[in-house]
Specification:
By secondary structure, the protein is α/β, with parallel strands linked by helices. The protein has two domains: about 120 residues, Cobalt-precorrin-4 Transmethylase, domain 1, CATH 3.40.1010.10; about 120 residues, Tetrapyrrole methylase, C-terminal domain (Methyltransferase, Cobalt-precorrin-4 Transmethylase, Domain 2, 2-Layer Sandwich). Helices cover about 30% and strands about 25% of the residues. Strands 3-2-4-1-5 form a five-stranded parallel β-sheet, with helices on both faces. Strands 6-7-10-8-9 form a five-stranded mixed β-sheet. Helix 3 crosses helix 4. It is globular.
Length: about 240
């Protein structure tokens, strides 16, 4: 039976890979990545392995995010059909802020292709430590893009701590759009929280170190943070007491 293995490669550094993920990646003939800038992609390439990235799809102005994800998913399923096995590596955890594993599962099941998911450390584990927060005390986790696209479906709840991921992504269905979701997100939060309520922006500096940097601000200052955000940025708001 053909098989698709979706591997979570963690938030960045090679050292944060699980042993299971490392064994699968280093023993595979070919590994597909969503992004070619991930340190694990770079490391495997340095080891002489065959690695393929879908990164160029994000640069195509004719493609929406949804269409790019569909193309990736179809390519992975086709690889499994042709070679009997496809290995697809995703940053973080395959089921944390990721869509393609669901698309792949929908395509693979009718074809009788087995699917295996290998968990990895998500960006959330790093944020819990950086922000000194424990989700058991009450935490709402939201996606900034979904909040601005469908504010009625994803409202923040000031009664609980709120952690918002993917701040700074394009405010559009297309990844090539110049405007980010920062301004509309700030508008939503300004309606839900007092202007002087504290907030913390956490960004990952990306390749090669993947270190976290924080900036403490107020809700009223969120819209002014365009100089600090990147595509690896999250926002934390403590509960209103």
């Amino acid at each position: 039976m053909s098989e698709i293995v979706v591997v979570g490669v963690g938030p960045g550094p090679w050292e944060m890979l699980t042993l299971e993920a490392r064994d699968i990646l280093t023993s595979s003939k070919r590994v597909y990545f969503r992004y070619g800038t991930h340190p694990v992609f770079i490391r495997l390439k340095e080891l002489g392995m065959e690695v393929v990235a879908f990164e160029l799809l994000y640069a195509d102005p004719n493609l929406t995010y949804l269409k790019a994800y569909e193309l990736m998913s179809r390519a992975i399923v086709r690889e499994a059909q042709l070679r009997g096995r496809a290995v697809y590596a995703l940053p973080g955890n395959p089921y944390v802020f990721e869509k393609t594993p669901r698309f792949i599962a929908e395509l693979a099941k009718p074809l009788g292709i087995a699917m295996r998911l290998v968990p990895g450390m998500s960006f959330l584990e790093q944020l819990y430590v950086a922000l000194r927060i424990d989700p058991e005390e009450g935490l709402t986790i939201l996606n900034a893009s979904r909040m601005v696209e469908r504010p009625e479906s994803y409202p923040p709840n000031p009664r609980y701590a709120c952690l918002i991921g993917q701040v700074g992504l394009p405010f559009s269905a297309k990844p090539t759009a110049p405007a980010t979701n920062l301004a509309p997100l700030a508008g939503i939060l300004n309606k839900a929280y007092p202007p002087h309520h504290p907030a913390t922006i956490v960004r990952c500096v990306g390749f090669p170190s993947y270190q976290l940097e924080t900036r403490n601000i107020t809700v009223a200052q969120i819209s002014l943070q365009a100089d600090f955000i990147n595509n690896l940025t999250s926002l934390f708001l403590p509960p209103v007491t």
